[in-house]
C-alpha cells in the first residue's frame, strides 16, 4: 500500500513538517538551529539513518525527525552541502548546492508528520512523496510573491502527491546508485526546481533524496554509524 489519503487540514509540506493533532509529534531543527533534543530524537530511532557516503567531504547537518504520538520515530532527514533557505523573489537561490537524504522506516500505517496525509505501510512511494514535498518546501519561483507562492505550493504539492503514486509513469526514470557499496535501482525525476529520487534501503526501509546544484549521478548512500558530524 502507498500514500492513499490526506487530512482535511494541511500544513505546509516538507520532509518532516508540523505534526497533525493527535497523530505525530515532530522534533525539528531549522537552518542555524541545533537544539540538543533534536540530536536525541535521531539517536532514539530503532532503524539506521542513511546519508551520503564517505566520498562526500562537505558539511553535514541535522534537519528533522518525525515520531508518532507514542514516540516511535518514523522518518527524518539529513542534509549535505549548503543549508537551503526560503528566499524572496529578489534573492534567487541558484548558487545553493545541497542534497537531503530522507530515511523512512519500514512500518505499518501511520499519519504523516507534515499533516498532508495518512501513509500506509511504507513503500518507495512514501519516500518519493516525502522527498518531493521536501524539495517544494525549499523552492521559491522568482516570479511569485508570498501570497501567490502559497497557491503555487498547494498546486505543486498535489502534483507531487500524484507523481509519487505513479513511479512507473513517464515522469520517472531509473538510476542505479550504491547503498552501502551495493548497487540499488532508484526511481528518479528531475524538474526545474531540482531532482528527486527514491528507492529501498538495505534494512527493509526506504531512502528518499532531493537536491539542487549537486549532480545526483555520482552520489552514494551509506548507513550513518555516528551522527556527530551532523550535529
List keywords for this structure.
231 residues, 32% strand, 8-stranded antiparallel beta sheet, alpha+beta, disordered N terminus, 3-stranded antiparallel beta sheet, 3 helices, globular
Give the overall silhouette.
globular
Percent range for β-strand residues: 25-35%
Largest sheet: 8 strands, antiparallel
Tell me the structural class. alpha+beta
Q: Helical residue percent?
A: 10-25%
Helix tally equals 3
Distance N to C terminus: 34 Å
Tally of individual domains: 1
Question: From the alpha-carbon coordinates, what is the Rg to the nearest angstrom?
Answer: 16 Å
Order of helices and strands: EEHEEEEEEHHEEEEE
Q: Uncertain segments of ≥5 residues (pLDDT<50)?
A: 1-35
Strand order, largest beta sheet: 2-4-5-6-12-11-10-9
How would you describe what is shown here?
The protein contains three helices and 13 strands; from the N terminus they run ββαββββββααβββββ. Helix 2 (124-137) packs antiparallel against helix 3. Helices cover 18% and strands 32% of the residues. It is globular, with a radius of gyration of 16 Å. The chain has one domain (3-230). It has helices at 36-43, 124-137, 146-164, and strands spanning 3-5, 24-28, 50-52, 60-68, 73-81, 98-104, 110-111, 118-119, 173-179, 182-191, 194-200, 206-212, 221-223. The longest helix has 19 residues, at 146-164. An eight-stranded antiparallel sheet has the order 2-4-5-6-12-11-10-9, sandwiched between helices. A three-stranded antiparallel sheet has the order 1-8-7. Strands 3-13 form a two-stranded antiparallel sheet. The chain is of the alpha+beta class. The model is unreliable at 1-35 (pLDDT under 50).
